[in-house]
Amino acid sequence: MVFLLLVSFGVSMLTAVLLIRWVRDHARHYEAEKPQRFHVGDVPRLGGVAILAGLSFGWAMGALAAWLAWSVNSQVVWSTALGWGVMTLPAVLGGAYEDATQRLAVRYRLALTAVSAVLACVLLDVAVPRLALPGVDGLLATWPWLGIAFAVFAICGLPHAFNIIDGYNGLAGTVAMLIGLSLAHVALQVGDRELAAIVLCMVGSTAGFLFWNYPRGLIFAGDGGAYLWGVVLAVASIALVQRHAVVSPWFPMLLLIYPVWETIFSIYRKLARGVSPGVADALHFHQLIYRRIVRGVFHDDASRRMLMRNNRTSPYLWGFTLLTVVPAVLFWNNTFALMVCCALFAVFYVSAYLMLVRFKVPRWMRTKY
């Protein structure tokens, strides 16, 4: 299985090099005045293509290894690898097209992620089997189509949640890796080597992209990368709970609560101000960390100062993510403990957000360099 991870890593890293070298011109069309822009210069935003290349090659090699009975501890069959590959394409290619042209409206990207979600349900037969909520599980058992609807909603929504947190070098990619490693760990715990191999290919391809993305910021994941992470992790989460009754449905909920809660809270605060949730702004949690905690650099040129501040922002959010990943892995089959952790995260997030907005950051947390 390590072989598949290394293959995905290598293909993604090499593809990223080619994109950095030859596909930089499209970045000139990215508007400098966008509120979510925190870099200087023209940086290619097609990292999602590199991740997709590594991921697809890893899945193909896993299926080939299983077919030829190679000893790589992989049990990925061709039909499964093909199904995963096909279902990711609409969302990822739509995001990549937007990254390259800036001409694909949000509603069309949302529609393409919905297509990926429907394909996942049809080709991979995924559906939300239970939510461990009184009354709801009975409805899911009585009306199977309800579980499919929940799955489509989750698979369609998570890519956009990852797109929201994809604001700084290494942030969303490392979060995706941590979540992927956690899913693979639990999949191995319950003996699902196929699902573990599928997710580890995503981890490897993401690591290959991060080799160039952090800390140098030579390439960005873009919408294509964010949508790929969201689709793959959403389908893997649903499949893990669906296949193994011992896994609590709140395990993936706690793993993914950072991007999910960021999205929910963002929609709430925008509606509270009378602004459309689709309007981009610079008031997300990671952006407040950038402004309030990672303080100014007083030497070198503007480009280097912004890059240094950008790179110093992500580790704060990695630690933030570990607050959910660690208890999720520890209590993956304990629904009550997972629910409590989800509630504590929501309280902690809102408290921290209000503290940042009101300039009440403790002095010891501020970074000045």
What general form does the structure show? globular
Helix and strand content put the structural class at: mainly alpha
In this structure, how is the largest beta sheet organized? none
Query: How many E-type strands?
Result: 0
Q: Work out the count of structural domains.
A: 1
**Termini gap:** 42 Å
Summarize model confidence as the mean pLDDT: 86
Strand content: under 5%
Q: What is the helix content?
A: 55-70%
Give the helix tally: 14
SSE sequence, one letter per element: HHHHHHHHHHHHHH
**Low-pLDDT segments:** 35-39, 296-300
Radius of gyration, CA atoms, in whole angstroms: 20 Å
How would you sum up this structure, described in words?
This protein has 14 helices and no strands. It is mainly α. The longest helix has 29 residues, at 302-330.
Compose a concise summary of this entry.
The protein is mostly helical. Helices cover 70% and strands 0% of the residues.
Tags for this model:
369 residues, mainly alpha, 70% helix, 14 helices
Topology diagram in text:
Blueprint: H1 2-22, H2 47-68, H3 78-101, H4 106-123, H5 136-142, H6 144-165, H7 171-189, H8 193-213, H9 222-243, H10 250-255, H11 257-272, H12 285-292, H13 302-330, H14 335-357
Helix pairs in contact: 1-2, 1-8, 2-3, 2-8, 2-9, 3-4, 3-9, 4-6, 5-6, 6-9, 6-11, 7-8, 7-9, 7-13, 8-9, 11-14, 12-13, 13-14
